[in-house]
Amino acid sequence: MRQHEGVTEPLLRASSVKLLDVHRLRLVEAAAPCLSPDDRVAMDRAWEKAVRANPSLFDGPVAACTRLEQEGPDGLVLAWARTTYRQYALRKVPSATTWLPSLYVSVLQPTDDGRLLVGRMSPSTASPGRWQLPGGCVEPPAGDEPLDVAALHRHAARELVEETGLDTPPGDLTPWLVARGTKGSIGVVFRAPSRPASLLLDRFAALVAEETALGRDPELDRIAFVRSPAELPGLGGDRVDYLEPIVRRYERAYPSA
């Protein structure tokens, strides 16, 4: 993979998951890289193939990461660009040189007894059957609105209610860390206040019933609670690459939760 202009190699192109402790995060908008004719053809073919396999996919707007670099001892600068989900299809083309890592938010939702909520993506999503934390790709702001940390708070709160039915004010979410995935994906991870597991199960059941009554598939078709990485294999199926490292970090940070 050739490094495209402006990308910081150690943070966006390393091959293992890295969890970054960040006290200051600054987001700046950048231009998306221009696609070569070959990459554009390959992108369209990969996207059409993906849509044939999963007709529920849509080519909506999304914010992708173009650069991530250290700023001082405890800060990061994250440059992002406006694109669409179609561009992410380039990640499945080995010869592509201008694909962009995704930018997403995730939420750690603890239970009162110290477990973490994880969810399985439903068949109608882009990653059916995959276990992950509640969250999703970041969308670019409308008009002149900024994409900043406050916007990421709001986006994370919206993902949490859309996927679990739990309505949490954005201000109650605490930035916890930044995760960089094996293919350069960048996730801003928030921690929500602890809630009783029974409440989480009830809210999720109500959400699934409401979506089903409207003829829609919920984004998550199952939730579970885990206390340690040792419990993850028992879930069965695929898991997003960041899940095990984050659960391990949480177990160390809150050993008596």
Structural features:
257 residues, alpha+beta, Nucleoside Triphosphate Pyrophosphohydrolase, five-stranded mixed β-sheet, three-stranded mixed β-sheet, globular, disordered N terminus, Nudix hydrolase domain-containing protein, NUDIX_hydrolase_dom, NUDIX_hydrolase-like_dom_sf
3D architecture notes:
This is Nudix hydrolase domain-containing protein. InterPro entries: NUDIX_hydrolase-like_dom_sf, NUDIX_hydrolase_dom. Pfam families: NUDIX. It comes from Nonomuraea glycinis. Residues 98-255 form the Nudix hydrolase domain. It is built from six helices and eleven strands. With 257 residues, it is of the alpha+beta class. It has a single domain, classed as Nucleoside Triphosphate Pyrophosphohydrolase (Alpha-Beta Complex), CATH 3.90.79.10. Strands 1-9-10-5-8 form a five-stranded mixed β-sheet, covered by helices on one side. Strands 2-4-3 form a three-stranded mixed β-sheet. Strand 9 (174-180) and strand 10 form a beta hairpin. The longest helix has 17 residues, at 37-53.
* Corresponding CATH superfamily: Nucleoside Triphosphate Pyrophosphohydrolase
What is the count of β-strands?
Answer: 11
Number of domains: 1
In the CATH hierarchy, the third-tier topology is known as Nucleoside Triphosphate Pyrophosphohydrolase
Mean pLDDT: 91
Class, according to the CATH hierarchy? Alpha Beta
- Order of strands, main sheet, comes to 1-9-10-5-8
Q: In the CATH classification, which architecture applies?
A: Alpha-Beta Complex
Organism: Nonomuraea glycinis
InterPro entries: NUDIX_hydrolase-like_dom_sf (IPR015797), NUDIX_hydrolase_dom (IPR000086)
Protein name: Nudix hydrolase domain-containing protein
Domain Nudix hydrolase: 98-255
